[in-house]
Specification:
alpha+beta; Chorismate lyase; 6-stranded antiparallel sheet
């Protein structure tokens, strides 16, 4: 008996869930999952042009409209970038439209924002604290790379970040490499370690400035700060970064858009 065409197989899986309580999966979502798997495998690198919707439709043996809907979702999630008249490209953190997607700080007064300057204060390898290991899906005692960074806006210290990364993936990440880097931090992770951060979950709370942050942010003890705890994920929803940021918000605010 002939093998079923891929479209038939996908439609069958969409219409007939397997396993107790399995959810219906529309065909375009299945195509979207296949595209994400190709991105995760590195079939198309950051910044590269992906095949046209016509070619992808032929590859998966589905309609062009089904592919377009899958690509539309990936573009809305900033995994892909559409360029008018040029095609669709894999998003890269070196791209101006994506570079500051994860930095949500904005000046209270429009036009007041100064140039963002990053200074790496520390980079070391260490055993993962239990809380960090759990959040990164690591075994107890596995190695992480810990980075401390000070971000200044218009030469004013504004954000103090503590960052933890899986040590096995970020081998070779050193203070020297970070200091010499002129690209966005996520751009460095992408080009040097093949890790693309595609989404993040954050929790925000108000805190009093801890003693160790006061000198670095040039504030008095107990000054109100915004603490932002972030978990960043790569393809396949794999946690790849834990970040705790302390934000000085006397002239800046944390901006978000809800759709």
């Amino acid at each position: 008996m002939a093998e079923p065409r891929p479209e038939t197989s996908l439609r069958t899986r969409a219409a007939r869930p397997t396993g107790e309580g399995a959810a219906f999966s529309p065909l375009y979502r299945q195509i979207k999952d296949l595209l994400v798997q190709s991105l995760e495998r590195g079939e198309w690198k950051p910044g590269e042009l992906i095949p046209s919707e016509i070619d992808l439709a032929a590859r998966f043996q589905v309609s062009q409209g089904t592919v377009r809907k899958a690509v539309d979702e990936l573009a809305a999630e900033h995994m892909l970038l559409r360029r008018q008249g040029k095609g669709t490209f894999v998003a890269t953190h070196h791209e101006a439209r994506v570079r500051y997607r994860f930095l949500r700080l904005a000046p209270d007064e429009e036009g007041e924002a100064g140039r963002a300057e990053s200074r790496i204060l520390e980079c070391r390898r260490m055993r993962a604290p239990a809380e960090i290991a759990r959040a990164l899906d690591l075994r107890a005692g596995e190695t992480v790379v810990m980075i401390r960074r000070l971000l200044s806006m218009g030469q004013t210290p504004t954000v103090l970040d503590d960052i933890w990364l899986p040590g096995s993936i970020f081998r070779g990440l050193t203070l020297e490499l970070l200091t010499a880097n002129k690209a966005p931090l996520y751009g460095l992770f992408e080009s040097e370690f093949g890790v693309s951060m595609v989404r993040a979950d954050e929790k925000l709370r108000a805190v009093a400035a801890p003693a160790e942050a006061c000198t670095l942010l040039n504030v008095a003890a107990g000054t109100p700060l915004l603490q932002v705890d972030r978990v960043s994920y790569t393809y396949g929803d794999r946690p790849m970064e834990i970040r705790r940021g302390l934000y000085l918000t006397d002239r800046y605010h944390y901006r978000n858009s809800l759709n």
